[in-house]
What we know:
Elements: H1 2-7, H2 10-19, E1 23-26, E2 34-40, E3 50-56, E4 70-73, H3 84-93, E5 101-105, H4 111-114, E6 117-119, E7 124-126, E8 128-130, E9 133-135, H5 139-157, E10 167-172, H6 174-185, E11 192-196, H7 209-214, H8 217-223, E12 232-238, H9 253-263, E13 265-267, E14 270-273, E15 283-284, E16 296-301, H10 308-323
Parallel strand pairs: 4-5, 4-10, 10-11, 11-12, 12-16, 15-16
Antiparallel strand pairs: 1-2, 2-3, 3-5, 6-7, 8-9, 13-14
Amino acid sequence: MARLMMRLPAGALLALLLVGSPVLAAGTADASERIDTLQLAAPGISPTPLRVRVLLPPGYRSDAPIAYPVLYVNDGQDMEAVGLRDTLLRMTVDGTLRPLIAVAIDMPPDRMAAYGLSDRAARHGLVAQTRYGPVGTQAHAYSEWVAHTLVPTIDARYRTRPSPGARTMLGWSLGALNAFSIAWEYPELFGRVGAFSPSFWVSADRSSPGAIQRTRLAQRLVDSSAPRTGMKLFFAAGDKEETDDRDHDGSIDVLDDLHDLIAGEHDGTAVRTRGLAQLGTTINLDYPAHPDRADAAFYRLPGGEHNQASWARMLPVFLRWAYADDNRDR
């Protein structure tokens, strides 16, 4: 424990001291598989420690010379519903994936407050007013907790590969909005992001459909940013997620919002809002039909809805894109 404490920054050390040593729960799918359960204090985000489950691959040994990439997952309470453990185990055992560590983070008590966008430089969340209430009021605090408490704790306890190319942030719905924000704002920590059905519709002004379209926060964040050289991004959405079509172009909003963030928003021949493409990101809008190694990939799930069953179908496609036969993090 002394060596562990020496490697932890103050915030991460305090988290462990407050709750004691993590509790180990043995996995049952394979004798060599293991799941550790950590309870980490998260001041300003939760009055009680957040549960974090660490899925260790078959054959993991703390004294082995190998180091592993790490997949961080928002909405970890959905781990069973989206089949995270079973999918990882199956794809690792059959050789599709190289072994990796997955970190499933239970949602904070106020999910809408924590799972928004953050402006790291300004040190505050980018708050969106929605019909359900404000989104993002605690997004900066949550992002800082992930970056400065959770990641150092995982790197200190486990045989991780501590480089951006070996860290991925994943989420779905609001959790995907936040996963994108964390990776985008902390590129020195995260080199990859996966966003399933991301809530890229959140906006500063929802007084009218046109106002929503003009003030979408994720698109404005990308438009105002410098290029994220080397970052790899995976987006997925179903074509049956909703029926809303605010600009009446025949495409549902979730697909429009994703397309505008990836390819930019155009007004005739001019670019109104820069997307990833205008920042120099190479784009594959038809993955996996065209499995080229672009920096950003979009997977459109036929018949996909906005639910856990659809995210479970997206998961193996994402994992194959992110990890199968991949040496980008070496």
